[in-house]
UniProtKB/TrEMBL annotation:
Membership in a protein family: Belongs to the 5'-3' exonuclease family.
Organism in which the protein naturally occurs: Sarcoptes scabiei
GO cellular component term of the entry, any: cytoplasm
GO BP annotations, alphabetical order: nuclear-transcribed mRNA catabolic process; rRNA catabolic process
Protein's UniProt name: 5'-3' exoribonuclease 1
């Protein structure tokens, strides 16, 4: 969680820090770190509280997510996977509160779901509290992840070229702080290059703080796109998730300009790194995972703005900065807190009410934000709540008295303080100690495993300001708790099954020494917050001495399996080594090339005295290296309520707007610029920086090209104006960048792709530009282009490509599509000697030949099915036909909103007048639907369970039904009740609630037979039905079994020209067809040549679906039914011929090609197959082996062979 609402506030204040990314516009990063617990919770989360997610499915999803993130970022040097281990005690209190609250929330959700008619699962639902060090789940997940990493390094070239670090749950420390230990280690030992670029994935907002405190300028945080909507549901599938980068480099520039106004006022140098350190310190006052926020200081109540304003106003009178390399300068911080306390009282005065105000409706007195006094409050004696602090003058005005009374009431009611002087002083001292502990945590690592803040609430800032400036905090490092002890400390009794059996009784037996720490009921306090997840859980802090003694008393009862969960682990530094010493291998028998160097949990922790906590000396921020920065343009800044659009909503906070300096260009200057830059690369999309090719420069009348001027045509003037207006609007309303007007434009072609080409044995980088030009205001075009940090691999010659043993695929016969390994590249003859690996293929010709017969055996016409079912359940055929499609029920919920539930089986339907069907259940051919026999059983079962639906369809024929149509017997009772109790709406509410439960029962039944989750396909699409896919799978399995351990692959050697190979490194965006002449049909044998996707490079399979975008389907098919062409013949035809011809012209590059691969893999789909072996591909990712065979056959026929 970190710091709630910080990410949104920063995004509204500094809107250009975020960048939407995809696989082809990601910056280059050397180091990629994943805070793994964010992945765990995403993949273990279900939007359906009653849907059980299997452990195997969670593990598969986690591995797929990791692989997707790796493929997205593609680190050049290091990939670090960091799992949360045992946390410091200060974090353990927050973990305990979160787990208790989570279990309580899940119980409430389950009860509400059951009350609304949803059925409970037969097996217990997944308890996310198992994502805690020391559980069996985490032990198995740890082993699974190490095995996953080992397999990837052993088999994948991309993983072999870097170091992969894994730190599991058996290594103490939070994931993000293990990562920061590693960064500090490399930084202090000067192991980082000047331009080292870091990316960290994680969901906690405190990643922003630790990234800033690292003083690594080329840093970005990867996270899923945030959409602040109640209806937004998370997904464990990264393929359907939008990702964003938060650029710390741009955030640093924003911070520089945010506080630039104090530069001429302060008495010491204005240094960005010192400003950042101070911000890290003062933002802690808003609370984090270790200490609560100060009273009335909340981000949603302008807390950050107050902190910033106080900082700006106090700095001119100080003699230096507040935070000195991770240590508080108490004297200066004291003055800052004093200044902040003035704001505190001003805010109180602004929000407080008159004491004498009496609310007639509630009979309550309210004063001070968040303070409620009931009718029994003693007003006459309220002044006695004030203590005798001499620092407050006797001449204080009424407002001061009110503030003091509120303060005292806060301490006495929230914290049950009796001796205010002593208790508040101790509270304030501990809070200050907490701030220093967290600062150390960010800058030095954990300085004490045992310290924690022992209060639920924070002191008033005015009291914090009274802490002595002469103090010095000394922390005892201690040691982390054992995993099982931490587990016992943080789990609620409702999650006791996650504990070893010997410890479970300690959570519920009345005589347990720990029983007081496992309350079944507890209070929560929003404490001026908005969301329940931000509330304070009012539970006793667990006593560590009692905890340790109790655990030791029961240690002897633990089994060896239990104790295995308590064994500390190590960091694994995995790397690929060709000729590896067995002694350095992780598992030589399984992974003969996997070197595993290990480090203990504290080996990366350096003494705080030697840690480099500043900007590295080898970094020159004035040098442009192409990383996103706010340099290159002249601009001014202004803070205002701009209502820009952030996360799809208008911002609620003030924004630091960038006002770009307007430049004026006379015709001669424009012509000079055109002569110099037209045809060259310029940078656009500032400050994110993208490449474009300059075509010309424009003013209101003239187009300036190289050594040429032409008068602009009216249509181009209008087009340029439209582009200009759109850019002005987008930059202002989404990025907070203001351009006064657009008088001068640059006509450019944006970069669409990079591709290497070969010519005479030399390699050149070829940039592909969009065919459609765009117009960019000249004021935001950068002409003196710096090196773009989205770098591509640099290949000087083909020797760099055709390395020994490097795998490639041929796109030339006689071995088209075959895998080969390089023996040698002859640069003189410009040819490649290779070993070609030839493998036999499954024989599927009979399956293709008998396609129609198989389909006819597996499907019934709608007429026949309706007749059969109608006789079986004794209903009209029209009712059966209707229930096979959509049957909509509408009703008003308790909020009087119209809701709809489809109680039809949805085996057939239409969208935009085009028929849709459900693969595996139905298909459509020659204006008729066909169904598998299993549908008969489903309809019959539906009738047995919910006869009301069928009776409704018999009684009424309507396009849309009402709830009362489904339950007509109850309608009379309701109407009669209304006559007797016309003002009693509870009757209707009870009626609706009961019937909605029945509707939910239907929906749950749909879920149980996997209908509602299945995906419909437009009937015109080319696809093989599930029954064909299952037969194809059987042939592949039988083929593998028949040759396993009997027939080895055949290898031959040969020499080929470089052009005869598909070289994936050359097609950097993988957007070009490997062979532009190739055609693609169902049943074609293909091989994956796309790296950085879940499908393994070189995986082979068969095309089982070719789905085109909707507009192309409309254009090409024009409503005609041709779904069984191209190896598919009509179910209504007796002829069994399969034509290879396809007369319809299609854009194959835009199609989604579904492939059934020979082997399952992490990230594969199981929707239409029996294993994780299907995946939706693009034609540009595939070599079509069948096409090569056909070309070879045609050539042989032409020469009479």
């Amino acid at each position: 969680m970190g710091i709630p609402k910080l990410y949104r506030w920063l995004s509204e204040r500094y809107p250009s820090i975020n960048e939407d990314i995809n696989q082809y516009n990601v910056p280059e990063f050397d180091y990629f770190y994943i805070d793994m617990n964010g992945v765990f919770h995403t993949c273990a989360h279900s939007n359906n509280v009653h849907k059980q997610i299997s452990e195997e499915k969670i593990f598969q999803d986690i591995c797929f997510y990791i692989e997707y993130l790796f493929n997205l970022i593609r680190p050049k040097k290091v990939f670090f996977l960091a799992v949360d281990g045992v946390a410091p005690r200060s974090k353990m209190n927050q973990q305990r509160s979160r787990r208790f609250r989570k279990f309580k929330e899940m119980e409430q959700i389950r009860n509400q779901a059951i009350e609304s008619g949803e059925s409970s699962p037969e097996t217990p639902t997944f308890d996310s509290n198992c994502i805690t060090p020391g559980t069996e789940f985490m032990l198995k997940l740890n082993a699974h992840l190490i095995d996953f990493v080992a397999k990837k390094i052993q088999k994948s070239i991309e993983w072999q070229e870097i170091t992969v670090i894994f730190s599991g749950c058996d290594v103490a420390g939070e994931g993000e702080h293990k990562i920061m230990d590693y960064i500090r280690y490399n930084k202090t030992l000067n192991l980082l290059d000047a331009d080292s670029k870091h990316c960290i994935y994680g969901l906690d907002a405190d990643l922003i703080m630790v990234s800033l405190s690292s003083h690594e300028p080329y840093f970005a945080i990867l996270r899923e796109e945030v959409i602040f909507s109640k209806n937004q549901k998370s997904s464990s599938d990264p393929m359907v998730t939008n990702f964003q980068l938060l650029h710390i480099s741009i955030l640093r520039d924003y911070i520089y300009h945010e506080f630039l106004e104090i530069k001429p006022k302060i008495k010491f140098p204005y240094v960005l790194e010192k400003i950042i350190d101070d911000l890290v310190l003062i933002i802690m006052l808003l609370g984090n995972d270790f200490i609560p926020n100060l009273p009335r200081f909340h981000i949603h109540k302008h807390g950050l703005q107050i902190l910033f304003d106080s900082y700006k106003s106090i700095m001119p009178i100080l003699d230096g900065y507040l935070n000195t390399r991770g240590k508080i300068h108490f004297e200066r911080f004291h003055k800052f807190l004093k200044k902040l306390s003035f704001y505190d009282q001003d805010q109180f005065n602004h929000n407080s009410f008159d004491f004498r105000y009496l609310d007639d409706k509630t009979n309550q007195i309210t004063f001070g934000e968040g303070i409620d006094l009931n009718e029994d409050f003693d007003f006459e004696n309220m002044h006695h709540l004030s203590d005798n602090d001499d620092s407050i003058s006797d001449e204080s005005n009424a407002s001061d008295d009110e503030f003091r009374a509120t303060r005292n009431y806060y301490y006495q009611t929230k914290l049950q303080f009796e001796n205010l002087d002593e208790d508040v002083a101790q509270l304030s001292l501990e809070y200050m100690r907490g701030i220093q502990w967290v600062l150390h945590y960010y800058y030095d690592g954990c300085v004490s495993w045992e310290w924690f803040y022992p209060y639920h609430y924070a002191p008033y800032v005015s009291d914090l300001a009274n802490v002595s400036t002469e103090i010095e905090f000394i922390f005892k490092i201690g040691s982390p708790l054992e995993p099982l002890i931490q587990l016992l400390a943080v789990l609620p009794s409702g999650s006791k099954e996650l504990l070893p059996k010997a410890l479970q009784k300690l959570t519920y037996l009345p005589d347990s020494p720990l029983i007081e720490f496992f309350p079944l009921k507890f209070q929560t306090d929003l404490n001026e917050k908005i969301n329940e997840y931000e509330s304070i859980v009012l539970m006793p802090f667990i006593d560590q001495k009692i905890l340790l003694k109790t655990f030791d008393d029961h240690r002897h009862e633990l089994t060896p399996e239990d104790l295995s969960r308590n064994i500390p682990g190590s960091y694994h530094f995995f790397s690929y080594v060709e000729n590896l010493d067995k002694n350095k291998a992780y598992d030589y028998e399984r992974f003969p090339n996997l070197q595993d160097e290990r480090m203990k949990f504290d080996d990366l922790r350096l003494p705080m005295e030697i840690i480099n906590k500043e900007l590295r000396s080898n970094i020159d921020l004035e040098r442009h290296n192409g990383f996103p920065r706010m340099n290159g343009l002249n601009f001014k800044t202004k803070i205002e309520y701009a209502k820009i659009k952030v996360f799809r909503f208008q911002s609620q906070n003030m924004t630091l707007m960038i006002e770009v300096e307007k430049r004026s260009f006379c015709p001669s200057i424009l012509q000079t610029m055109a002569n110099e830059y037209v045809g060259k690369i310029v940078n656009i999309d500032w400050p994110l920086i993208k490449e474009a090719k300059l075509i010309s420069l424009l003013d209101n009348k003239i187009c300036y090209e190289k050594n040429k001027q032409t008068e602009l045509k009216a249509n181009e003037i209008e087009r340029a104006k439209i582009f200009g207006r759109n850019i002005l609007d987008r930059f202002k309303n989404k990025r907070g960048i203001v351009l006064d007007s657009v008088e001068f434009m640059a006509k450019v072609l944006p970069l669409s792709a990079n591709r290497y080409s070969m010519f005479n044995g030399e390699i050149k980088l070829f940039k592909q530009w969009d065919q459609s030009p765009i117009y960019i205001p000249l004021d935001i075009v950068l002409f003196d282009c710096q090196k773009i940090f989205r770098m591509n691999p640099f290949y000087q010659s083909l020797d760099n490509i055709f390395k020994k043993n490097h795998p490639f695929y041929l796109i030339a016969n006689p071995h088209y599509g075959s895998e080969c390994s390089v023996i040698h590249y002859n640069s003189k003859q410009k040819c490649v000697s290779v070993v070609i690996h030839l493998r036999s293929l499954p024989l599927i010709e009979d399956l293709m030949k008998n396609y129609t017969i198989i389909m006819q055996k597996n499907f019934l016409s709608e007429k026949k099915l309706a007749s059969t079912v109608a006789k079986s359940i004794n209903v009209p055929e029209i009712v059966v036909r209707r229930v096979l499609g959509s049957v909509m029920i509408t009703f008003l919920n308790k909020n009087e909103n119209i809701k709809r539930i489809n109680v039809g089986l949805k085996f057939k339907g239409k969208k935009d007048s085009k028929p849709y069907c459900l693969p595996g259940y139905s298909c459509y051919d020659v204006n008729e639907y066909f169904f598998v026999p299993k549908v008969i059983e489903i309809v019959e079962e539906y009738h047995r369970k919910f006869p009301e639906v069928f009776q409704m369809l018999i009684n009424l024929n309507k396009p849309v039904y009402d709830l009362v149509d489904l339950f007509p017997d109850d309608l009379f009772a309701v109407r009669k009740s209304h006559q007797l109790f016309i003002f009693n709406s509870l009757i209707l509410i009870r009626f609706l609630s009961d019937k909605i439960k029945k509707l939910n029962s239907i929906r749950n039944w749909f879920d149980s037979i996997s209908i509602s989750s299945s995906e419909h396909i437009v009937a015109d699409a080319e696809y093989l039905d599930n029954c064909i896919i299952h037969l194809l799978e059987k042939k592949i399995i039988a083929f593998k079994a028949s040759i396993m351990n009997r027939i080895k692959e055949e290898t031959v050697t040969g020499q080929f020209l470089p052009e005869n190979f598909y070289i994936p490194e050359f097609d950097l965006e993988a957007s070009n067809l490997p062979d532009p002449k190739a055609t693609y049909y169902l049943f074609d044998r293909v091989v994956n040549i796309k790296r950085y996707i879940p499908v393994p490079f070189g995986a082979k399979g068969y095309i089982v679906g070719i789905i085109y975008p909707e507009e192309i389907i409309k254009k090409n098919f024009n409503g005609n039914n041709q779904n069984f062409n191209n190896n598919k013949t009509s179910l209504n035809e007796s002829n069994e011929t399969n034509s290879m011809a396809n007369n319809v012209t299609r854009n194959i590059e835009s199609a989604n090609i579904e492939v059934l691969f020979d082997e399952p893999f992490a990230g594969g789909s199981i929707d239409r197959s029996s294993d994780l072996n299907t995946f939706t591909m693009k034609a540009s990712w595939l070599i079509n082996v069948t096409y090569g065979e056909q070309i070879l056959s045609l050539r042989r026929q032409s020469i009479g062979r």
